[in-house]
Amino acid sequence: xxxxxxxxxxxxxxxxxxxxxxxxxxxxxxxxxxxxxxxxxxxxxxxxxxxxxxxxxxxxxxxxxxxxxxxxxxxxxxxxxxxxxxxxxxxxxxxxxxxxxxxxxxxxxxxxxxxxxxxxxxxxxxxxx
Length: 129
Hints:
Blueprint: H1 2-15, H2 23-28, H3 31-46, E1 49-53, E2 60-65, E3 72-80, E4 84-88, E5 101-112, E6 115-126
Antiparallel strand pairs: 1-4, 2-3, 3-5, 5-6
Region (Disordered): 81-103
């Protein structure tokens, strides 16, 4: 859970800049999950946008797979993004799509002894939970 929560905290911090190379993103995620954040943040940055607000998490372990290589944990969440929004960095008008509750699934893998990272994440549309 620490890796999952840390990844979201890093994303919220990264989108406020926005910085697709924000160091804590790679601290808590890698592979497909890191690609999701980098692509999204690159798009936000290229559009001249910046994020504000914070998400509310309520993760739960869906399943644990201790005997796989690497060991993994599947997490299910209902991420509430209703207190977040995008705005133009230059202050000009921008109409953001409202946030809300989004069904989210993630795979967290033990990369090495004591190091867990989110390797996959799927975030579904508003109203899916």
